[in-house]
Amino acid sequence: xxxxxxxxxxxxxxxxxxxxxxxxxxxxxxxxxxxxxxxxxxxxxxxxxxxxxxxxxxxxxxxxxxxxxxxxxxxxxxxxxxxxxxxxxxxxxxxxxxxxxxxxxxxxxxxxxxxxxxxxxxx
Length: 123
Known about the structure:
Layout: E1 2-5, E2 9-10, H1 23-34, E3 42-46, E4 51-55, H2 57-65, E5 70-77, H3 80-93, H4 109-122
Parallel strand pairs: 2-4, 3-5
Antiparallel strand pairs: 1-5, 3-4
Helix pairs in contact: 1-2, 3-4
């Protein structure tokens, strides 16, 4: 496990496979973090340049809200694509359930995400 500066974590690459961030959860996590609670490390994939967040979007937002500059992170070698694929599997296995509506993070949306990844690979 490492400690990673929050500013180094990329959140803008489409690796979030949920519909969005639930602010009530972020607020709850932030309050717990401010009180000293320890959360599991977030998971990021490092491609040599960027750290792509794959798991822990609510924890990252909560850490920012709590005024933290860093967060515990499991840093793995890999690409943005690896982060997306991990995110799909992580969100199916634990944490907040994926929503059943909306353009991202849905069971219907996962095949679309995978199709987009295949188009990128073919280009």
